[in-house]
């Protein structure tokens, strides 16, 4: 608000009493003074990040994989306001050559804080033919309502006093850390989240495994955020506990002679269930020293542990991937990319339990090319 003494005779000096202080101002002049006040402050946002995974515990056979789903949630937990201040302009005009401004000052009340002020043109300045603008600014301790009090003096001892109340209801807010960039050790860059979008959840799926060695292990994963202004960071972890049961070493050996020698003979494994004899093919496939040789281009094997078609695990029909020791299988390498396992093959006395049809060579214990892999082999046609 501006306080002025009016209605006094020309060329007289008016006595104006304000807060117990006597000030003088040129009466009936055209000395016009306007004061603006623009409050401002900073608002710094705070963030947190959470991460979870489902399932968090998995059990895998050697060479097996599992899909798990990760969720990353970023949210703002509030903000802190700081750096309150006010700035404005004192604008003076007169069109009266009798007014020469000597000083201009602004104080913020009730704190009695002196504002920094710069006037253009510099003082002293005669207002007869030029306007005066003085920019001011002051730092404040909080957002309480206040008043900017301007006091100007003239070279001949006159004075003007103008008040401008203000509060922070429509203050200029400088936002700090209003956005964060979110990254993930598995998924890479997840995106940017700002306070208007928060909370926001990112979801993605990843494959755990395969593992060639048995035993327990933990697959760790970390998500992080970094704020856009101060670079403040935060992180959250999610881990998958993986159990790879230790199973007996995989094994396999042929249990039938090649087609070129159909007579049953020694297969080199005298301790197998058939005493090292091959299992003959044909309509009667009971073990023994007499019988027909195989009549097709397939391999007959005694197997156990983990089996692979090249690098693809072959599941055991009874569940899981571990084949019981000395399981009898007929293995056919066929021109199909799928693995098919059937039972009830051979004649009524067949000891062959399963027929495995797969695209690659059969390996036991570990996949093709891995340490410990045992090549079982399939005799290629023709026989």
Level-1 CATH class name of the largest domain:
Mainly Beta
Enumerate the spans where pLDDT stays under 50 for 5 or more consecutive residues: 1-28, 257-263, 280-297, 379-383
Proportion in β-strands:
over 45%
**What overall form do the CA principal axes indicate?**
rod-shaped
| Helix percentage | under 10%
Query: What is the count of β-strands?
Result: 27
Class by SSE composition:
mainly beta
Q: Span between N and C termini? A: 111 Å
Name the helix and strand elements from N-terminus to C-terminus, one letter apiece: EEEEEEEEEEEEEEEEEEEEEEEEEEE
CATH topology of the largest domain: Immunoglobulin-like
Over the alpha carbons, how many angstroms does the gyration radius reach? 45 Å
CATH architecture of the largest domain: Sandwich
Largest sheet: 8 strands, mixed
Summarize this structure as a short list of keywords or feature phrases.
383 residues; mainly beta; Immunoglobulin-like; 2 domains; eight-stranded mixed β-sheet; seven-stranded mixed β-sheet; 0% helix; 53% strand; disordered C terminus
Summarize the structure in words.
The protein is an all-beta fold. It folds into two domains: 37-86 and 107-148 and 166-246, Immunoglobulin-like; 247-383, no CATH class. It is built from no helices and 27 strands. Strands 20, 21, 22, 23, 24, 25, 26 and 27 form an eight-stranded mixed β-sheet that branches. The radius of gyration is 45 Å and the shape is rod-shaped.
């Amino acid at each position: 608000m501006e306080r002025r003494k009016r209605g006094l005779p020309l060329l007289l000096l008016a006595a104006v009493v304000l807060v117990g202080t006597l000030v003088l101002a040129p009466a009936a002049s055209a000395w016009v003074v306007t004061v603006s006040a623009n409050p401002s402050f900073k608002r710094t946002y705070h963030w947190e990040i959470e991460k979870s995974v489902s399932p968090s515990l998995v059990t895998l056979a050697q060479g097996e994989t599992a899909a798990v789903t990760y969720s990353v949630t970023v949210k703002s937990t509030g903000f802190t306001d700081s750096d309150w201040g006010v700035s404005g302009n004192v604008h003076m005009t007169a069109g009266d050559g009798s007014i020469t401004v000597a000083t201009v000052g602004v104080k913020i009340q009730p704190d009695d804080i002196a504002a920094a002020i710069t006037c253009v043109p510099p003082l002293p300045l005669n207002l007869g033919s030029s306007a005066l603008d003085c920019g001011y600014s002051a730092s404040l301790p909080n957002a309480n309502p206040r008043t900017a009090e301007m006091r100007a003096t003239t070279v001949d001892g006159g004075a003007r006093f103008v008040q401008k109340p203000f509060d922070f209801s429509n203050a200029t807010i400088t936002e700090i850390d209003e956005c964060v960039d979110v990254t993930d050790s598995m998924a890479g860059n997840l995106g940017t989240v700002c306070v208007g979008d928060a909370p926001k959840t990112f979801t993605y799926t990843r494959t755990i495994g395969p593992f060639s060695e048995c035993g327990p292990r933990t697959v760790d994963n970390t998500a992080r955020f970094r704020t856009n202004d101060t670079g403040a960071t935060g992180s959250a972890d999610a881990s998958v506990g993986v159990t790879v049961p230790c199973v007996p070493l995989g094994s396999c050996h042929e249990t039938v002679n090649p087609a070129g020698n159909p007579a049953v003979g020694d297969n080199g494994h005298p301790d197998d269930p058939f005493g090292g004899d091959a299992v003959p093919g044909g309509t009667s496939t009971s073990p023994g020293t007499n019988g027909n040789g195989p009549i097709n281009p397939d391999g007959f094997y005694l197997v156990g542990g983990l089996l692979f078609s090249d690098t693809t695990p072959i599941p055991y029909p009874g569940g899981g991937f571990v084949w019981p020791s000395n399981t009898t299988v007929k293995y056919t390498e066929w021109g199909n990319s799928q693995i098919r396992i059937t039972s009830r093959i051979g004649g009524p006395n067949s000891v062959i339990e399963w027929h495995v049809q797969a695209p690659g060579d059969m390996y036991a214990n570990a996949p093709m090319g891995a340490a410990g892999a045992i090549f079982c082999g399939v005799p290629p046609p023709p026989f």
